[in-house]
Write a structure and sequence with these properties.
single chain, alpha+beta, globular
C-alpha cells in the first residue's frame, strides 16, 4: 500500500524517551527540519504544525509511557507538502474525527480542526502487530517567500 507521505523525497526520524522533555525536543527538531527543507517560519502551516506535533507528542508522553518507553516522530517533506507521524507502542487507536464528541479532551479535536483548516489530513495507522499506532498529519505548503526546497 502506498501512503501519501511515501512519495515525499525528504525524510528525518527522531526517537525519544516518553518523558516530559520529549515535547520540547520534538518541537525544536521540527523547527530545524523545516528550516533545512526550506520551510520558513512565515509559511502558514509552520506555527500550526508545531502546535499539532507538540500535542501529539504530549499525548504519547501522557497516555502511552506506561507501555511505550519511546515515542518516534517521522518527518516527510517535499515541495508541496510536509507530513509527520507520531508513533508509540500503546495499542489504543483514537478516533480522530470523533474526539470532540467522545469527551476525551480537546487536544485531538484541536489537532484535527487545525489540520483540516489548513487543507491537510489526519489519519491513525495501527502497527501490523496491533501493538502500537502512528498518527499521521499531512499539511500542504504554500512556500511563501522561500525557495521550493533543496
Amino acid at each position: 500500500m502506498i501512503r501519501p507521505h511515501d512519495s515525499l523525497p525528504y525524510r528525518h526520524v527522531l526517537t525519544l524517551p516518553t518523558t516530559g522533555s520529549a515535547v520540547r525536543i520534538a518541537r525544536e527538531t521540527t523547527e530545524q527540519v523545516l528550516a533545512e527543507w526550506g520551510v520558513g517560519p512565515h509559511e502558514p502551516c509552520t506555527g500550526p504544525a508545531l502546535l499539532i506535533l507538540s500535542e501529539l507528542v504530549a499525548n504519547s508522553v501522557r497516555h502511552a509511557a506506561v507501555v511505550s518507553p519511546n515515542v518516534t516522530v517521522v518527518f516527510a517533506g517535499g515541495p508541496d507538502a510536509f507530513a509527520f507521524g507520531v508513533h508509540d507502542r500503546h495499542p489504543y487507536r483514537p478516533a480522530l474525527h470523533t474526539s470532540a464528541v467522545a469527551g476525551s479532551g480537546r487536544g485531538l479535536a484541536t489537532v484535527v480542526e487545525l489540520t483540516l483548516e489548513l487543507g491537510g489530513s489526519a489519519v491513525v495507522r495501527g502497527d501490523a502487530d496491533k501493538g502500537g499506532k502512528s498518527i499521521w498529519i499531512t499539511l500542504p505548503l504554500q512556500r511563501t517567500g522561500t525557495s521550493r526546497g533543496r
